[in-house]
Amino acid sequence: MPQSYVHLYTQHLLLLMLSLIVFKYLNVVPTKTPSEFLWDPAAGRIPPPSTFLTASFLSSGREMACAEVIPVPTLSDNYAYLLIDRKTNTAACVDPAEPEKVVAAAKERGVTLETCLCTHRHFDHSGGNEQIKKLVPGIEVIGSAYEETPGRTKAVTDGDTFRLGKFSDLQVKVLHAPCHTIGHLLYYLESRTDVNAKPIIFTGDTLFLAGCGRFFEGNAQQMHHALMKTIGSLPAETLVYCGHEYTIANLKFAATVEPNNFALQNKLEWAQKQQISGKPTVPSSIGEEKAYNPFMRVDRPEVQKAVGAPEGDEIQTMHILRERKNTFRG
Fold first, then answer.
1. Mind listing the GO molecular function terms for this protein (predicted)?
2. 146: domain range?
């Protein structure tokens, strides 16, 4: 390396070290590993500020969401959700495995429960559908047309759209994501009138914070399509609400794949504080998941190398990651 490059490299390395100290003081989170921050003489510049995520990125941004979402813990580690449209004071619920809790949450907030969205047929997600029909007469239970869903009153397919209520400006788009079950659905919610409101996606057991669901009725190629194409193509600011509180275990596994991922380390520290405080770790965002979720980073050479997959083989990387996670006991 020419002496001038050595001099410049040293300057930028010192600048990097100083920046990291400042970022630590200001609680700013780098999203790339140290090797990725080093100035590249061929490029002639240091990485841009966009390679950093402020600590506020790790907060949910729920105040800017298109709807109010209330996580309702059920069973041992499941989440049901109460989805509220404050403009009409109506609500929907998602996967109410213990419907009494969801109905109580709706009454507490003074909203009318009109719709139930079911992501897939597994009992810990659909097991409350029949009971909620008894508790809320006339409620519409929406479920997958690709599998038998208990209590379903309306079957939907990939690409279907509907409003949450007759007078609501909230629109739901159905996305089919077969793998965990053959008929698994995602529900993507956005405002029809407020372009600045963050969209929301309910991912059931397809995408978890820092993880993904088991391939019970599918394969790595299907999960790759679900995560990298179907979900990965949505706006980065989309808020992610998943079906289980697996975040800390998932992040610990992710750390075995990318131990130097600063965004991952920061998220794990944050999640552990949430757990101590008795608070949920949902939601995250699609942008966050792309920063630390190994199952949404199978296109990254460092992840492929870490699991011993052939270079550029995203499907095999997905397969190996899932096999390793199946036996992980961290």
1. hydroxyacylglutathione hydrolase activity; metal ion binding
2. 68-327
